[in-house]
Amino acid sequence: MKNCRFCGETIAEQDEICANCGYNPQTDTMTTGFVKKNRKTDKRQNMVSPGIKSFARWGMVIVILSLGFKYQSKVGDIIWKMRNLALGDKAAKSGKTSAKASPSVPAKLIDVRSYTAPADKANGQDRKIEGVFYDPKGKSYVLINGHLVSEKESFGNMVIQKINSDSVEALEDGKQLILRVHQ
Predict the structure, then answer these.
(1) Which is higher by pLDDT, 48 or 162?
(2) Residue 57: per-residue pLDDT
(3) 171: part of which helix (H) or strand (E)?
(4) pLDDT, tens only, 164-173
(5) CA–CA separation, 72 vs 85, rounded Å?
(6) Backbone torsions φ then ψ of 94, nearest 5 degrees
(7) Spatial distance between the Cα atoms of 92 and 99, rounded to a whole number of angstroms
(8) How do beta strands 175-180 and 154-155 pair?
(9) For the sheet containing 154-155, what is the strand order?
(10) pLDDT average, residue stretch 43-57
């Protein structure tokens, strides 16, 4: 029997190195890549107390319930899809009829271009810009005396050249006009 010079453990005669730290007394060196052998441990050291287990269970229940409340619409959709799959075509057909009751298609906007102002105002000098529908990436519109006009379209004897967010550039009888939005 020898004692380890580093950790003080006893080294058995049949062992070449210390089982605790990997010291080799024959070469007086430490073994590289040494992995400590597992010793039998008391089962009580690895046990978690019942209070901690109960706390963890209740914590998981609270987290699951709170996520369920947060995402209840998505969970409901998943449950209905699973129900429809389980019941087959009968449930899917009944689901389609309920979809008609609550349409998912957004309502269409009213086409304001169908509204026309009286002819004397449209062609007269009393031009009133009532609003600008400006879209820098798409097609912009201007509402003049109740008529919706886009760029490169004519209104009376003037041609709308460019629509800005707060003004309209137009050409009338060869003159360049800048019309501002009427407040």
Answers:
(1) 162
(2) 94
(3) strand 167-172
(4) 888 889 998 8
(5) 20
(6) -70, -30
(7) 11
(8) unpaired
(9) 154-155, 158-163, 167-172, 175-180
(10) 80
Joined tokens for residue 31:
């073994």
- As a whole number of angstroms, the distance between CA 63 and CA 55 comes to 12
pLDDT at 101 over 60: no
Tell me the pLDDT tens digit for each residue of 15-41: 888 887 888 888 888 877 776 666 555
Topology at the third CATH level for domain 112-180: SH3 type barrels. (2.30.30)
Angle at 153 between CA 152 and CA 155, to 5 degrees: 135
* Helix, strand, or coil (residue 103): coil
Residues 6+ apart with CB under 8 A from 154: 160
Relative orientation angle of helices 50-70 and 72-87, to the nearest 10 degrees? 80
